[in-house]
Structures are given as structure tokens and as C-alpha cells.
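Work Package 3 (structural annotation) set out to generate three-dimensional models for the target panel prioritized at the project kickoff. During this period the team completed the workflow that converts sequence records into C-alpha cells, so that structures can be stored uniformly alongside our sequence database. As a representative example, we reproduce one entry of 144 residues exactly as it appears in the project archive.
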Amino acid sequence: MTASEYLDTRVQEQMQWMEQKSARNQQWYKILKLIELVCAAAIPFLAGFYQMFSFFPLLTALMGVIIVICNGLQQLNHFHEKWINYRTAIELMKREKFLFQSGASPYNVEDAFKLFVQNFENLLSNENRTWKMDIMKNPQSETA
């Protein structure tokens, strides 16, 4: 496999996959946090109107339940941690790719492509190890 083929297939595909996973986890994290924030801010506001509308106590209780569910989903799925981990891995991969393509150290040697493949595959291996440790600590967590 040539350097160009490796960059176009393995490197680009892995970076694109991680970009999608990072964006998805970021999106879920922010949605859940926004819902929590809105509900938490509304509870004290609604508490002042308990006497005016009979359904406000029920609505306030429901918002409390929604906060607990959102927080539980975040703890169960680790959206924030996954977002950060994927983003970190992508940035490390971009750095290695840039160093290789520009011929900068450590890729200013004769076997630069082999060294790049080894370093890139080590990054992927480390990411897989991190993922496996997370799954083993949290078996109920989503797999990606």
C-alpha cells in the first residue's frame, strides 16, 4: 500500500468516523445539558405561581424528573467524555498526518511512511484501549 492510498483510506476514514462520533456525542451532551438547564431554571419560577394554577406543582415535579433522567442518561452514556476523547484522538491524528505530509520530524527520515503507519496505528490502538476500558467500567454504556 502506498502512502497516498493509506492516507486516503485508513487515515481519512478513521478521522471521518471519529469526527462523526465526536459530533454526535457533543450534540447529545449539549441537548441534555440544555434541557437540564431550562428545567432547573423553570422550577423556582413556577414555584412562585403554585397558588394561581393547579397544575404547576405537577409541572414542577415533572421538570425535576426530567432533570434526573437527563443526568442519568449523561452518566450512563458518558457523552461528554466520549466527545472529548474522540476530539483529542482526532487532533493527535491530524498532527501526525501534518508532520508526515510536511516531512517534519520525526518523519524526515528514509522510512518515514513506515514510521507514520506505526505511529498512526498506535494512536488507533490507544483509542481502542481507552474505549475497551470504558466499556469494562461501564458495561451498560453505549458501544460507540
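Helices lie at 3-47, 56-77, 79-102, 112-137.
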